Amino acid sequence: MTQPVVLDRGTKQPARPRLGTGSGRPAWSLLILVIAILVATPVLAVVVDGLTQADATNLPRGIGAMVLTTLVLMIGVGVGTLVIGCGLAWLVTAYRFPLRDILVWLLVLPLAMPAYILGFVFLSTFDVAGPVQTGLRSVFGAEVWFPEVRSLPGAIVVMSLTLYPYVYLLTRAALAEQAPETYDAARTLGAGRSRAFRRVLLPLARPSLAAGLALVMMETLTDFATVQYFNVQTVSVGVYLVWKGTFNFHSATQLSVLVLMFAVAVLAGERLMRGRARYHQKGGRGQGLQQERLTGWRGWGATSLCVAALGAGFVVPVAQLLIWAIGDAISDPAGVWDPRFADYLANSLVVALIAAAACVMLSLLMGHGLRMGGGRFVRAAAQLTTFGYAVPGAVVGIGVLLAFASLDSALRAIGVEGGTGLLVTGSVLGILYAYVVRFLAPAYQAVDASFSKVSPTMTLSAMSLGAKPIRILRRVHLPLVRPGVAVALVLVMIDAVKELPIVLMLRPIGFTTVSVWVYQLANENFWQRAALPALVIVAVAVVPVFFLFRQVQLVDTHRTVD
Amino acid sequence: MDVMTGAAAAASGGLAGSPGEPIPALVLEGVSKSYGGVVAADSLRLEAALGELLTLIGPSGCGKSTTLRLVAGLERPDEGTIRIAGEVVSGHRQWQPPERRRVGLVFQDHALFPHLSVGNNVAFGLDKHSRADRTARVGEVLDMVRLSHLAARFPHELSGGEQQRVALARALAPKPAVVLLDEPFSGLDENLRAQVRADTVAVLRETGTTAMLVTHDQTEALSVGDRVVVMRNGVIEQADTPQQVFESPATRFVASFMGDADFLPAHVRDALLTCEIGVVSTVPGWGHCDVDVDVVLRPHEVAIAVDPSSPARVVAVEYHGAFVLHTVMLGSGQTLRSWQPHSVRHPIDTRVAVTVVPGITPTLLVGDEAVTSPPPPRP
Predict the structure, then answer these.
(1) Looking at CA atoms only, how far is residue B113 from chain A in angstroms?
(2) Is B154 near chain A, with CB under 8 Å?
(3) d(CA B200, CA B209)
(4) Which residue in A135, A151, B112, B254 is deepest, having the highest Cβ count within 10 Å?
(5) What is the value of ipTM here, to two decimals?
(6) Which residue on chain B is closest to A456 by alpha carbon?
(7) What is the CATH number of domain B6-102+176-257?
(8) Which fold has domain B262-371?
(9) Where does the pLDDT of residue A561 fall: very low under 50, low under 70, confident under 90, or very high at 90 and above?
(10) Which of B113, B122, B134, B212 should we substitute to test contact with A (largest number of A Cβ atoms within 10 Å)?
(11) What are B124-181's pLDDT values in tens digits?
(12) Chain A residues close to B173, C-beta within 8 Å
């Protein structure tokens, strides 16, 4: 997840002087092109392979149902997050009620709860054998009706609960950034509070809503484990299952192309919803939306709505995990410190660290390379590298396998016995490559955001003082973009620790990470055993949410200062 | 004799190059640059002598910044040659990147490296010197801008004026052949600007530095530059001394851009220049002529006196403190402006006689070009 970066969406960079066309350094431009090609290769390989296999017979049976399921899931989660996220944003923006000042930022916490972890806690609680149904049966008898939990609606509920903060954050940011005069004008024209919200504030927030929804849908499309717990077959899962079931590239790539079409549709949808609207209003003086104090039962009602979302999305599942972890520790003290756990944790961290370092280095080189000149084409190439983030892990996985396979056959063709051997065994190198493809986007965006704060005149001054590109990178750019580098490292590491399908597809035999371990334990209903590693992942995922806290508080003080 | 336009005279007069003369610090020969279809620089010809201070002025988008960037090596020209201290830095199949040109840059935002102290900022361009040389040179240039006591500070701890001086010191430290200043004073407070400008010019003069200063402030261009280069639409309209630019503008544009100017249709016959307000002046050497021209009249050249019988009347009065600007509408509907001392204030609708202050030789325009010699006699 790219939380801090997300908030930069839509903020237009000011026009700034830059190096002109034709003055670029060919070597640096070439480097950017090479990086772009490197990152684009797996996805392109998938598309080419998928489209050149003309016969439709390669698509798995039940493909229609799969597409329909994916569609319903994405729309369902979209609507769910829209209702929860937008509703909560309006509540905390327009009203004052007990605990509001704490809840306003706590409401972001569910972002730290990966859906696949909330998913198994939810299942364990509400499934046939869980405490809720057991309790109901003990009261109303064995025939008591309960909705099927392992179902599409179940998945929609769980994913909405973990993903709503995207919509919440962006809506709040949009409401706070709107010029107060706009709201004042609506009020002086006779609109009441809620009419002004519906007719003025909300439409003005539309681009942000679109961005938030696009993120939500992208995460939904990418999800791999949650949907499987709930027996929901989406196209992304299909790619993995088809590959693991048949090891047939062609059916996997055809399905992957379908997944990519979903991703493109989401991006196009965002553009469409954003429309030509460019609602960029700057500051301005005025009253703006004043918070109304809710008292008595209405106040506590508002509080409990927020608490319910927070509880369901974060507090209760974390408590449940803690209870399991502690219970497990008490019942089997020796078993808790499974020696494998340290091993898996080390695997996760090392791979994540290398991937993060690689992503940050490439981002730095690209940001610096653009500063050294380069025209529109090179700029577009740099932008291209960020598309990988919209591609689900399973598809990237297939793409990397495909790229390695081509490399193997190419090597064999020129006489290298057995090629690279990467394909047969799976490899950590493959995992790292896939990580770079998928996570270069958040790293690049973070580093680029820092670069955009460095005035181009700084670069030009350094040049005119006789500094060569490498010296400029070392002595000027690197020290100045350090904040972006830190953010990028953290973001990629967290994403990498949580990533699942890529590891499952590409790992060598015997190589397991914490996320894979949680997934496997949960899949086999070893809830207690899964609790501790799950908590580790949640703890790691909380880190970026702290970045967000600061953001939320900034927005909040900006708004509530009288 | 041909009509010799002022612009052509200014452009062709600038190019010297006979052996024995000192090598000019900066030479642009036929330099052109366009972006897409937009011409930002159109066959620029310009030369800066050693130690000369040029100011570059024009409306936004006129190509003055492009010219600066071309010289600095931040843009590659489509054609033409640029020489710095005699060395071709940009020309046919020749190209020196910015770091290899001996060009110093000073930007409006100063662009000081925020993570380096003042001393290290200044030392940045001296990395090829020995440590001792570097320290000595840093001390030297900081002395020059009177900031030696702040060497250990960081840029954010300095005032805007001090930052500007550090930027200048940093640019001067590697002893560049030419220093380019891109609107260096426009980021400063009004009351600080004059002082910083005077200090900067003093340092440039003291060190004998050749400099090109881009500005959008006419007063600044006129008061600072040895020569003023006026640009429009990528073309150098005039490159001349401040007096020449102001008193003998080469084109209608230069006349109106560099100071206030009104234009009146006029006629020259028998070496006499006449227009709606009467005989303006004699035009020696134009004895055989009988041509229509436009005459350029600046407000300080226009005198007014109350005269109830005059067809001209005051239509607007603006108080500027020391002077009062009167706008007068002539009988034909043409307007002229006139500066009057602050004690003179004619009410609106006052009838006034309009004359030209004695001793003025006004600029004459044929079309949009100034004419300095009489046109050939009509066949």
Answers:
(1) 7
(2) no
(3) 11
(4) B254
(5) 0.81
(6) B111
(7) 3.40.50.300
(8) OB fold (Dihydrolipoamide Acetyltransferase, E2P) (2.40.50)
(9) very low
(10) B113
(11) 999 888 999 999 999 999 999 999 999 999 999 998 889 999 999 999 999 999 999 9
(12) 465
